[in-house]
Amino acid sequence: MSGPTTPSEPATAEAGTAEPAAEPAAEPAAEPAASPRTSRRDPDRRPDRRPDRDLRAWREWGLVVGGVVLALLLWWPLSWQGLVPLLHVPTGALTGAAVLGGLTGAAVVAALVTAPWPRFVLAVGLPVLALVLTGVGALPPVGLVLVVVAVLLGLALGAGAAASPVRFAVTTGLVLGLSPAPHLMWGPLLALALALPFVRARASRVAPTVLGVAAVLLAFAAGVAVRTGLVAGFAGTPRRTGPAVLTDGLRASGAPVREQGLTAARRALELGSTWYVVAAVLAVLVVLARGAAAARRRTASA
Protein backbone atom coordinates (compact mmCIF):
# COMPACT_ATOMS: atom_id res chain seq x y z
CA MET A 1 0.00 0.00 0.00
CA SER A 2 1.64 3.12 -1.18
CA GLY A 3 1.87 6.18 0.92
CA PRO A 4 0.64 9.64 0.10
CA THR A 5 2.35 11.65 -2.57
CA THR A 6 4.95 13.97 -1.27
CA PRO A 7 4.90 17.63 -2.25
CA SER A 8 8.20 17.27 -4.09
CA GLU A 9 6.80 14.96 -6.81
CA PRO A 10 4.53 17.54 -8.54
CA ALA A 11 7.43 19.97 -8.56
CA THR A 12 9.58 17.34 -10.21
CA ALA A 13 6.93 16.61 -12.80
CA GLU A 14 6.49 20.28 -13.62
CA ALA A 15 10.20 20.66 -13.94
CA GLY A 16 10.33 17.74 -16.37
CA THR A 17 7.68 19.21 -18.62
CA ALA A 18 9.14 22.76 -18.73
CA GLU A 19 10.23 24.07 -22.18
CA PRO A 20 14.00 24.27 -22.78
CA ALA A 21 15.62 27.72 -22.85
CA ALA A 22 15.63 29.40 -26.27
CA GLU A 23 18.98 29.32 -28.07
CA PRO A 24 20.39 32.68 -29.30
CA ALA A 25 19.48 33.46 -32.89
CA ALA A 26 22.28 32.78 -35.35
CA GLU A 27 23.68 35.79 -37.19
CA PRO A 28 22.80 35.88 -40.90
CA ALA A 29 25.61 34.68 -43.11
CA ALA A 30 27.43 37.48 -44.90
CA GLU A 31 26.83 37.61 -48.62
CA PRO A 32 29.84 36.48 -50.64
CA ALA A 33 31.73 39.24 -52.37
CA ALA A 34 30.76 39.59 -55.97
CA SER A 35 33.39 38.22 -58.28
CA PRO A 36 34.57 40.28 -61.27
CA ARG A 37 32.62 37.93 -63.52
CA THR A 38 29.44 38.44 -61.46
CA SER A 39 29.88 42.20 -61.49
CA ARG A 40 30.29 42.15 -65.23
CA ARG A 41 27.09 40.16 -65.68
CA ASP A 42 25.07 42.22 -63.22
CA PRO A 43 24.20 45.54 -64.82
CA ASP A 44 23.52 47.10 -61.41
CA ARG A 45 27.05 46.34 -60.24
CA ARG A 46 28.87 47.17 -63.52
CA PRO A 47 30.23 50.75 -63.63
CA ASP A 48 29.08 52.81 -66.56
CA ARG A 49 32.15 53.45 -68.73
CA ARG A 50 30.25 54.68 -71.74
CA PRO A 51 31.15 58.38 -71.18
CA ASP A 52 34.87 57.47 -71.12
CA ARG A 53 34.52 55.50 -74.34
CA ASP A 54 32.61 58.31 -76.00
CA LEU A 55 35.19 60.87 -74.92
CA ARG A 56 38.01 58.68 -76.22
CA ALA A 57 36.23 58.18 -79.53
CA TRP A 58 35.66 61.93 -79.93
CA ARG A 59 39.30 62.63 -79.08
CA GLU A 60 40.53 60.13 -81.67
CA TRP A 61 38.17 61.55 -84.27
CA GLY A 62 39.36 65.07 -83.48
CA LEU A 63 43.00 64.01 -83.88
CA VAL A 64 42.27 62.47 -87.28
CA VAL A 65 40.37 65.54 -88.51
CA GLY A 66 43.01 67.92 -87.16
CA GLY A 67 45.77 65.89 -88.80
CA VAL A 68 43.98 65.91 -92.14
CA VAL A 69 43.51 69.69 -91.99
CA LEU A 70 47.17 70.29 -91.09
CA ALA A 71 48.32 67.90 -93.82
CA LEU A 72 46.25 69.74 -96.42
CA LEU A 73 47.68 73.07 -95.26
CA LEU A 74 51.32 71.94 -95.20
CA TRP A 75 51.47 69.53 -98.13
CA TRP A 76 51.84 72.15 -100.87
CA PRO A 77 54.19 74.57 -98.99
CA LEU A 78 56.56 71.71 -98.17
CA SER A 79 56.47 70.08 -101.60
CA TRP A 80 56.55 72.36 -104.66
CA GLN A 81 55.32 75.81 -103.64
CA GLY A 82 57.32 78.55 -105.34
CA LEU A 83 58.64 76.28 -108.08
CA VAL A 84 55.55 75.77 -110.23
CA PRO A 85 51.91 76.95 -110.26
CA LEU A 86 49.53 75.56 -107.66
CA LEU A 87 48.98 71.78 -107.87
CA HIS A 88 51.58 71.23 -110.57
CA VAL A 89 54.72 69.10 -110.65
CA PRO A 90 58.16 70.41 -111.67
CA THR A 91 59.24 69.07 -115.06
CA GLY A 92 62.27 69.19 -117.30
CA ALA A 93 65.51 69.91 -115.51
CA LEU A 94 63.69 70.02 -112.16
CA THR A 95 63.32 66.26 -111.91
CA GLY A 96 65.24 66.27 -108.63
CA ALA A 97 62.80 68.80 -107.19
CA ALA A 98 59.87 66.71 -108.41
CA VAL A 99 61.22 63.64 -106.62
CA LEU A 100 62.05 65.47 -103.40
CA GLY A 101 58.71 67.26 -103.33
CA GLY A 102 56.85 63.99 -103.70
CA LEU A 103 58.85 62.51 -100.83
CA THR A 104 58.44 65.44 -98.43
CA GLY A 105 54.75 65.92 -99.20
CA ALA A 106 53.97 62.26 -98.53
CA ALA A 107 56.08 62.32 -95.36
CA VAL A 108 54.13 65.32 -94.05
CA VAL A 109 50.81 63.57 -94.67
CA ALA A 110 52.00 60.30 -93.13
CA ALA A 111 53.33 62.05 -90.02
CA LEU A 112 50.20 64.10 -89.35
CA VAL A 113 47.37 61.72 -90.36
CA THR A 114 47.17 58.71 -88.05
CA ALA A 115 44.27 56.87 -89.73
CA PRO A 116 45.59 54.48 -92.43
CA TRP A 117 43.08 55.08 -95.23
CA PRO A 118 42.92 58.89 -95.03
CA ARG A 119 46.71 58.90 -94.89
CA PHE A 120 47.05 56.77 -98.02
CA VAL A 121 44.36 58.66 -99.94
CA LEU A 122 45.93 62.05 -99.24
CA ALA A 123 49.54 61.00 -99.71
CA VAL A 124 48.82 59.35 -103.07
CA GLY A 125 45.84 61.37 -104.27
CA LEU A 126 47.43 64.82 -104.00
CA PRO A 127 50.50 63.98 -106.15
CA VAL A 128 48.30 62.17 -108.66
CA LEU A 129 46.07 65.25 -108.91
CA ALA A 130 49.15 67.42 -109.46
CA LEU A 131 50.43 65.05 -112.16
CA VAL A 132 47.07 65.08 -113.92
CA LEU A 133 46.87 68.88 -113.87
CA THR A 134 50.45 69.15 -115.09
CA GLY A 135 49.99 66.57 -117.82
CA VAL A 136 51.17 63.02 -117.56
CA GLY A 137 53.39 63.45 -120.62
CA ALA A 138 55.20 66.42 -119.10
CA LEU A 139 57.48 64.07 -117.18
CA PRO A 140 59.42 61.24 -118.80
CA PRO A 141 58.30 57.74 -117.81
CA VAL A 142 61.27 57.28 -115.54
CA GLY A 143 60.39 60.60 -113.89
CA LEU A 144 56.88 59.34 -113.13
CA VAL A 145 58.33 56.18 -111.65
CA LEU A 146 60.72 58.21 -109.50
CA VAL A 147 57.89 60.38 -108.19
CA VAL A 148 55.82 57.30 -107.31
CA VAL A 149 58.79 55.70 -105.54
CA ALA A 150 59.44 58.97 -103.70
CA VAL A 151 55.82 59.09 -102.50
CA LEU A 152 56.09 55.55 -101.14
CA LEU A 153 59.37 56.37 -99.42
CA GLY A 154 57.74 59.44 -97.90
CA LEU A 155 54.91 57.32 -96.56
CA ALA A 156 57.43 54.99 -94.92
CA LEU A 157 59.42 57.94 -93.56
CA GLY A 158 56.49 59.68 -91.91
CA ALA A 159 54.47 56.63 -90.83
CA GLY A 160 56.41 56.10 -87.60
CA ALA A 161 56.91 59.76 -86.75
CA ALA A 162 54.07 59.80 -84.21
CA ALA A 163 55.71 57.08 -82.10
CA SER A 164 57.41 59.66 -79.84
CA PRO A 165 57.98 63.42 -79.71
CA VAL A 166 61.69 63.00 -80.44
CA ARG A 167 61.03 60.86 -83.50
CA PHE A 168 58.44 63.33 -84.75
CA ALA A 169 60.91 66.19 -84.24
CA VAL A 170 63.71 64.40 -86.10
CA THR A 171 61.38 63.53 -88.98
CA THR A 172 60.26 67.16 -89.14
CA GLY A 173 63.85 68.37 -89.30
CA LEU A 174 64.69 65.94 -92.10
CA VAL A 175 61.58 66.85 -94.10
CA LEU A 176 62.35 70.57 -93.75
CA GLY A 177 65.86 70.00 -95.01
CA LEU A 178 64.78 67.87 -97.97
CA SER A 179 61.94 70.14 -99.07
CA PRO A 180 62.84 71.76 -102.42
CA ALA A 181 60.30 74.58 -102.01
CA PRO A 182 62.00 77.98 -101.52
CA HIS A 183 59.93 79.25 -98.60
CA LEU A 184 60.41 80.82 -95.19
CA MET A 185 58.14 78.37 -93.38
CA TRP A 186 61.01 76.15 -92.27
CA GLY A 187 62.01 78.63 -89.52
CA PRO A 188 58.90 78.34 -87.30
CA LEU A 189 58.61 74.61 -87.99
CA LEU A 190 62.27 74.07 -87.12
CA ALA A 191 61.80 75.97 -83.85
CA LEU A 192 58.82 73.79 -83.02
CA ALA A 193 60.79 70.64 -83.84
CA LEU A 194 63.66 71.73 -81.56
CA ALA A 195 61.22 72.25 -78.68
CA LEU A 196 59.46 68.89 -79.06
CA PRO A 197 62.15 66.79 -77.26
CA PHE A 198 61.38 68.77 -74.09
CA VAL A 199 57.85 67.33 -73.98
CA ARG A 200 59.20 64.35 -72.04
CA ALA A 201 62.23 66.02 -70.49
CA ARG A 202 63.02 65.20 -66.87
CA ALA A 203 65.77 66.06 -64.47
CA SER A 204 67.03 62.48 -64.77
CA ARG A 205 66.80 62.49 -68.59
CA VAL A 206 68.95 65.46 -69.56
CA ALA A 207 71.19 63.53 -71.95
CA PRO A 208 68.33 62.06 -74.09
CA THR A 209 66.76 65.52 -74.43
CA VAL A 210 70.04 67.12 -75.53
CA LEU A 211 70.69 64.26 -77.95
CA GLY A 212 67.20 64.69 -79.37
CA VAL A 213 67.83 68.38 -80.08
CA ALA A 214 71.18 67.54 -81.68
CA ALA A 215 69.50 64.85 -83.80
CA VAL A 216 66.98 67.39 -85.11
CA LEU A 217 69.75 69.78 -86.18
CA LEU A 218 71.76 66.96 -87.74
CA ALA A 219 68.75 65.66 -89.68
CA PHE A 220 67.97 69.17 -90.92
CA ALA A 221 71.55 69.77 -92.07
CA ALA A 222 71.74 66.36 -93.77
CA GLY A 223 68.46 67.03 -95.57
CA VAL A 224 69.69 70.40 -96.83
CA ALA A 225 72.93 68.85 -98.12
CA VAL A 226 71.15 66.00 -99.93
CA ARG A 227 68.52 68.31 -101.39
CA THR A 228 71.13 70.75 -102.72
CA GLY A 229 73.14 67.97 -104.32
CA LEU A 230 70.17 66.20 -105.92
CA VAL A 231 68.64 69.35 -107.36
CA ALA A 232 72.01 70.47 -108.76
CA GLY A 233 72.85 67.02 -110.08
CA PHE A 234 69.54 66.48 -111.89
CA ALA A 235 69.56 70.06 -113.18
CA GLY A 236 72.81 69.36 -115.04
CA THR A 237 71.49 66.17 -116.57
CA PRO A 238 70.04 66.44 -120.09
CA ARG A 239 66.42 65.39 -120.52
CA ARG A 240 66.22 61.70 -121.37
CA THR A 241 63.50 59.13 -121.56
CA GLY A 242 65.30 56.08 -120.26
CA PRO A 243 66.72 54.87 -116.95
CA ALA A 244 69.82 56.97 -117.66
CA VAL A 245 67.99 59.91 -116.06
CA LEU A 246 68.30 58.22 -112.67
CA THR A 247 71.85 56.96 -113.03
CA ASP A 248 73.20 60.16 -114.56
CA GLY A 249 71.36 62.32 -112.05
CA LEU A 250 72.61 60.36 -109.05
CA ARG A 251 76.13 60.27 -110.43
CA ALA A 252 76.08 64.00 -111.05
CA SER A 253 74.71 64.66 -107.56
CA GLY A 254 77.73 63.25 -105.73
CA ALA A 255 80.02 66.24 -106.23
CA PRO A 256 77.34 68.89 -105.47
CA VAL A 257 76.49 67.12 -102.22
CA ARG A 258 80.12 67.32 -101.12
CA GLU A 259 80.79 70.82 -102.44
CA GLN A 260 77.56 72.79 -102.46
CA GLY A 261 75.55 70.68 -100.04
CA LEU A 262 77.83 71.11 -97.03
CA THR A 263 78.07 74.84 -97.65
CA ALA A 264 74.29 75.10 -97.97
CA ALA A 265 73.79 73.10 -94.76
CA ARG A 266 76.16 75.33 -92.81
CA ARG A 267 74.46 78.43 -94.18
CA ALA A 268 71.01 77.08 -93.28
CA LEU A 269 72.13 76.38 -89.70
CA GLU A 270 73.52 79.89 -89.43
CA LEU A 271 70.32 81.44 -90.81
CA GLY A 272 68.31 79.52 -88.23
CA SER A 273 70.08 81.16 -85.28
CA THR A 274 67.15 83.53 -84.75
CA TRP A 275 64.74 80.62 -84.55
CA TYR A 276 66.93 78.91 -81.98
CA VAL A 277 65.91 81.63 -79.52
CA VAL A 278 62.26 80.96 -80.35
CA ALA A 279 62.88 77.24 -79.82
CA ALA A 280 64.43 77.94 -76.40
CA VAL A 281 61.40 80.00 -75.37
CA LEU A 282 59.05 77.25 -76.55
CA ALA A 283 61.08 74.66 -74.63
CA VAL A 284 60.82 76.70 -71.42
CA LEU A 285 57.05 77.04 -71.91
CA VAL A 286 56.75 73.28 -72.47
CA VAL A 287 58.69 72.50 -69.27
CA LEU A 288 56.60 74.98 -67.26
CA ALA A 289 53.37 73.52 -68.65
CA ARG A 290 54.49 70.00 -67.72
CA GLY A 291 55.37 71.15 -64.20
CA ALA A 292 51.99 72.85 -63.75
CA ALA A 293 50.17 69.73 -64.99
CA ALA A 294 52.13 67.53 -62.59
CA ALA A 295 51.31 69.86 -59.69
CA ARG A 296 47.60 69.72 -60.52
CA ARG A 297 47.70 65.92 -60.60
CA ARG A 298 49.40 65.80 -57.20
CA THR A 299 46.84 68.22 -55.76
CA ALA A 300 43.93 66.19 -57.15
CA SER A 301 45.29 62.90 -55.78
CA ALA A 302 45.98 64.33 -52.31
Structure description:
Residues 1-51 are annotated as: Disordered. Residues 1-36 have a biased composition (Low complexity). Residues 39-51 have a biased composition (Basic and acidic residues). The chain crosses the membrane at residues 61-80, 92-114, 120-139, 144-163, 183-199, 206-226, 275-293. The protein has one domain. The longest helix has 30 residues, at 206-235. The protein has eleven helices and no strands. The protein starts with 7 loop residues before the first helix and ends with a helix. The model is unreliable at 5-18 (pLDDT under 50). The chain has 302 residues and is mostly helical.
Helices, by number, come to 11
Broad structural category:
mainly alpha
User: Rg to the nearest angstrom?
Assistant: 37 Å
Question: How many E-type strands?
Answer: 0
Order of helices and strands: HHHHHHHHHHH
